[in-house]
Amino acid sequence: MELVVKIYDTSQQHELINFCNECKKIGYTNNDSLKKLKLDRVKYSCISDKHKIIAISGTHHVDYYTGKHDWGVWYRVVILPEYHTYFNQTRPYGSSSIAFRICLKENILFAKKHGADVFLFTTNLNNDQSPKMIRQNSHAKMFEKLGIIKYLGERDIFYTPQNLWEININNYFNYIDKINENN
């Protein structure tokens, strides 16, 4: 099984609707419709296994930090449960994660290509949007300990209380290179 990454375009609409329907079935309410994905302002990296989208992660220009060349990454990131252990390894931390190894990388590369200087993501303080969301803040704290991200504080973003994090892309890519060397 080989995963393929593609920036979403309308030729993938049928597959993305199927993905949203899968999210609805398993209770991932943030990703259960095209409307909630905000396709008019967010570009998604779609990760597919054959012709089935199995993960998505969005990126978009944001103005809630420095207001200049800030981009939000890992927006509405979600992986279908049967792919959570796609990479069969647990060390180093994050190495088994499609979200960390593929989605984040693709979001950063897309944003960089469009002029990003600052790479941000958020974790909701209210974690009732999906069963897995409750773990996002603990994962972020671990990546902070590894020097990959920095905590910037709590903010209300899009009317939702969230933790705001900045990614050190040099540290991130160095860490990913180490993971890939071990494969």
Task: Explain how this protein is built.
By secondary structure, the chain is an alpha+beta fold. It has five helices and seven strands; from the N terminus they run βααβββαβαββα. The protein has a seven-stranded mixed sheet, sandwiched between helices. A hairpin with a 7-residue loop joins strand 3 and strand 4 (70-79).
Structural class: alpha+beta
Order of helices and strands: EHHEEEHEHEEH
Q: Beta fraction of the residues?
A: 25-35%
Write down the overall mean pLDDT.
87
Radius of gyration: 15 Å
The largest β sheet comes out as: 7 strands, mixed
Q: Biggest sheet: strands side by side, in what order?
A: 1-2-3-4-5-7-6
Count of individual beta strands: 7
Low-confidence stretches: none
Q: Can you describe this structure in just a few lines?
A:
With 183 residues, this protein is of the alpha+beta class. The chain has 5 helices and 7 strands. It has a 7-stranded mixed sheet, with helices on both faces.
Sequence-ordered SSE layout with sheet pairings:
Layout: E1 3-7, H1 13-25, H2 34-37, E2 43-49, E3 52-62, E4 70-79, H3 98-113, E5 118-124, H4 136-145, E6 149-157, E7 160-167, H5 169-181
Parallel strand pairs: 4-5
Antiparallel strand pairs: 1-2, 2-3, 3-4, 5-7, 6-7
Question: Which key features would you list for this structure?
Answer:
183 residues, 31% helix
